[in-house]
């Protein structure tokens, strides 16, 4: 199909280093510094933040370190995030055969995308939503560092019922597939207020309280709610791996953004 192309990086050099050697070193450092709980189990999905790596990279390292255990068995990664820049009805899947980063090209699972597009009530191509969107792109270099061979299904959420997407995905995600949700937490509150808001959101997530998650402050609350509903159906269990804010990493504490890494096992 003539419209199928490679998506070039939109935020390399802004959200993460554009030099491949520097990018590898930085991501490797974040992953090496993360420590996981003993006996975590088989990881099926993670939630990771998507700010600039200097801010959220230390927390993201926990989520992607958790994925290293499935490095040889990964198939397709369903990568879910919120559409920040373009209004979308449903979930935008794009018109790409690969996502490009400074570390190389990651193929899109075009057969799965084509099959999903047979359900227009939920999915559309909407490539314009992807063109300048950062939330999926920043996760791809981390995936490239921990998975040996995988394909992507890039999913940008707009106006859509997370429960309906979850019910559709539970029949699509196979035993060797992974789900990665890209989301930051609260935005631009003073440090102590942000931590209170984020703790409430994370408590709701860990308790399976979808209503309070969907009412929460996270920019990716719809993809998070989708994963929660999937986890309920598939008997996956959430584990909080790390939480901090930009005030703990590279920012001041007057206006912070919250970040968490969560793993689902099953």
Taking the alpha carbons of the first and last residues, their distance comes to 38 Å
User: Residue ranges: pLDDT <50 for 5 or more in a row?
Assistant: none
Rg for CA atoms: 17 Å
CATH superfamily: LigB-like
Biggest beta sheet attributes: 9 strands, mixed
The secondary structure category is alpha/beta
**How many structural domains are formed by the residues?**
1
Tell me the strand percentage band.
Answer: 15-25%
3D shape: globular
Helix content class: 25-40%
CATH class: Alpha Beta
SSE pattern, N- to C-terminal = EHEHEEEEHEHHEHEEHHHEHE
Overview of this structure, please?
There is one protein chain. The protein is 36% helix and 24% strand. By secondary structure, it is an alpha/beta fold. The protein has a single domain (5-265), classed as LigB-like (Protocatechuate 4,5-dioxygenase, Chain B), CATH 3.40.830.10.
């Amino acid at each position: 199909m003539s419209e199928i192309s490679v998506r070039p990086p939109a935020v390399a050099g802004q959200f993460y280093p554009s030099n491949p050697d520097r990018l590898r070193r930085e991501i490797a450092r974040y992953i090496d510094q993360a420590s996981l709980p003993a006996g975590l189990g088989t990881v099926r999905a993670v939630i990771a933040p998507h700010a600039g790596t200097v801010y959220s990279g230390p927390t993201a390292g926990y989520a992607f370190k958790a994925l290293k255990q499935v490095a040889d068995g990964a198939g397709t990664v369903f990568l879910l995030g919120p559409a920040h820049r373009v209004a979308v009805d449903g979930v935008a899947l794009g018109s790409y055969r690969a996502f490009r980063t400074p570390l190389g090209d990651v193929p899109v699972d075009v057969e799965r995308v084509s099959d999903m597009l047979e359900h227009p009530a939920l999915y559309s191509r909407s490539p314009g939503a992807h063109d300048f969107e950062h939330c999926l792109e920043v996760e791809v270099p981390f995936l490239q560092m921990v998975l040996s061979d995988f394909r992507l299904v890039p999913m940008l959420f707009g106006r859509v019922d997370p429960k309906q997407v979850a019910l559709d995905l539970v029949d699509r995600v196979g035993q060797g597939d992974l789900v990665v949700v890209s989301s930051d937490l609260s935005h631009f509150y003073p440090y102590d207020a942000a931590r209170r808001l984020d703790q409430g959101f994370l408590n709701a997530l860990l308790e399976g309280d979808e209503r309070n998650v969907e009412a929460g402050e996270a920019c990716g609350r719809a993809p998070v709610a989708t994963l929660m509903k999937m986890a309920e159906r598939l008997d996956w269990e959430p584990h909080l791996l790390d939480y901090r804010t930009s005030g703990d990493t590279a920012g001041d504490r007057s206006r912070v953004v919250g970040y968490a890494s969560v793993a689902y096992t099953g």
